[in-house]
Amino acid sequence: MTAIVSVRDLVKTYDTGFRALKSVSLDIREGEILALLGPNGAGKTTLISTICGIVRPTSGQVTVGGHDIASDWRAARAMIGLVPQEIALEPFEKVFRSVSYARGLYGKPPDPAHVERVLRQLSLWDKKDSAIQPLSGGMKRRVLIAKALAHEPRVLFLDEPTAGVDVELRKDMWAVVEDLRAQGVTIILTTHYIEEAEAIADRVGIIAGGEILLVEDKASLMARMGRKELKVDLAQPIAAVPEALAGRGLTLGTGGLSLVYSYDATQERTGIVTLLTEMRAAGLPIADIATRQSSLEDIFVDLVRAGR
Amino acid sequence: MNLQAVRVIFAKEMARFFRTILESLASPVISTSLYFVVFGAAIGSRIETVGGVSYGAFIVPGLIMLTVVTQSVANASFAIHFPKFIGTMQELLAAPIGFTEIVTGFVGAAAGKSILIGLVILATAFLFVDLPIAHPLAMLALLALTSLSFSLFGFIIGIWAKDFQQLQLIPLLVLTPLIFLGGSFYSIEMLPGPWQTIALFNPVVYLMSVFRWSFFDTADVPVAVSLVAIFAFTALCLGAIWWIFRSGWRIRP
Ligand SMILES: Nc1ncnc2c1ncn2[C@@H]1O[C@H](COP(=O)(O)OP(=O)(O)OP(=O)(O)O)[C@@H](O)[C@H]1O
Ligand SMILES: [Mg+2]
Fold first, then answer.
1. How far is B248 from chain A (nearest CA, A)?
2. Would you say A20 and A13 are in contact if contact means Cβ atoms under 8 Å apart?
3. Cβ distance A46 to A21 under 8 Å?
4. Mean per-residue pLDDT for B24-34?
């Protein structure tokens, strides 16, 4: 598959001297849905804003559809739609006009039928003549999405589209995303919610401290996320893992007071029952058992540590 | 050039003007009428004529310039500062539009409004005084050029300003004094000797002089000098805006 957005060694140092992006390289494949996950201040918005032309890159290169964003910026930007993280809308403008305006900015001739389609899809049609100011926060976010779709972009950036949004809108939004994917639109979204990435993304990228830590197919990441640990507390400490249980991948906890078994929760046979039976047969005094699932948090922590 | 973008920006800016057409036009008309009453009637009864022109007629070009310059700066600076303030500037920055489209759209609309207001004041003036217009075409061209150059200037202020207070600062501290001292309501020949020389450093003097020339065919400063000064000011503003978009100064972090 070809890369529709290609980011090479992108660095952004703000005027404050803060380096928000430290040499980011990323290829986004045509037609895919990429979820960018990362903690607050990771640089997600900075990365998106730089690709979209809102923030000036300090160094590095970005192409969109083969067009360099510095030398061929008109062609590059014409392909992009952006739903910004912050809701910023003209308070007194009417919904329909605001969306038509956004289309015009991208050089497209007026097309009321397309604007109507977009508004209907986002359940905004009955609000088309309403001023923006009195709309609820979720409605305003819909307007932002409608504006981004007004010029039929090939690449759509959604910066935390579901932050502060109810279940209803979240579902609507995912439906819109699915629809766009069917039309071949490439979608990049940022989120703090792993479930969101799980629900709609093809690939997941993790960014922290201005660096891309990994970009991986959702399936393989989910498998990693699916690792669980079974911790068996023992009534009396043991010196080593008993002979009979060797080869099961057990590790001994601190003080010899526990055994930790790591397994794949997505597998049908986890091996827990067999293990517990064998432990009893080996005469281990089981005091308590607990399971723990590795979370995105753990993966973050592991990755950031590994990066140091 | 992205013509659709220019069209929608221009249309949106003009729509705001027409939405508030009464306020937009009423205030300049009312204040002009007040100036006529105060200056024309009160002072005019003491000063009969200036260079052979009745004082009431003499102040008309000054009144038009006063309003056109302040309105151009106010409209253009607000038009571009507002999106910066509420954050919709991002929409403009991410769109495939640059210096040409943004300036044509925003400055074009601001200048268009000023021209309309200038014409309305002119029409109002005809109700009060007998007004000769020696060079009507030149008068219209100068009206348009002044609106354009000061809208460009206002655009720069709108980008420069970090808040609404700063937005008021330059018009209040620099522009208003320059306009009042620029011979809006008197000929600089009426000033005492040294002040005549000092006045020549005031750019508004050139503007006022040439505009008055288009009405009465007499000027304080040679017409050619005035024209060069106005074109130089326009070019300077255009250059500054071009640089702003190139460098991203105060618009792109
Ligand atoms: N204009 C700016 N000037 C200086 N520093 C900035 C600017 N914009 C962002 N930063 C800093 O850059 C870092 C990355 O910010 P960014 O908004 O890209 O993070 P993010 O990943 O989008 O975070 P969040 O999840 O909170 O939206 C932050 O530390 C932020 O303070
Ligand atoms: Mg962000």
1. 8
2. yes
3. yes
4. 83
φ, ψ at B88 (rounded to 5°): -75, 0
- How far is the centre of ligand 1, averaged over its atoms, from the C-alpha of A49 (Å)? 10
Residue B52 Cα distances to A193, B132, B222, angstroms:
80, 12, 19
Q: Are B8 and A101 in contact (CB under 8 A)?
A: yes
Q: Is the pLDDT of residue B160 over 90?
A: yes
State the pLDDT at residue A265: 73
Residue A1 pLDDT > 60: no
The Cα–Cα gap between B174 and A294 comes to 65
The average confidence (pLDDT) of chain B is 89
Ligand nearest to the CA of A41: 1
Q: Confirm whether pTM is higher than 0.90.
A: no
A94 phi, psi to nearest 5 deg: -85, 150
Q: Residue A281 Cα, ligand 1 centroid: separation in angstroms? A: 56
Query: Which residue of chain A is at minimal alpha-carbon distance from B4?
Result: A107
ipTM: 0.89
Q: What local confidence, expressed as pLDDT, does residue A219 receive?
A: 78
Report the nearest atom of ligand 1 relative to the CA of A192.
Answer: 25
Query: Amino acid letter at A86?
Result: E
The contacts of residue A157 (CB under 8 Å, 6+ apart) are A48, A51, A52, A80, A81, A82, A83, A148, A188, A189
Instruction: Note which residues in 36-95 of chain B have CB less than 8 A from chain A.
Output: 83, 86-88, 90-95
Ligand 1 binding site (Cβ under 6 Å of any ligand atom): A 14, 16, 18, 20, 38, 40-46, 85; B 253
pLDDT in tens, A239-298: 888 888 887 888 888 888 888 888 877 777 788 888 888 888 888 888 898 887 766 666
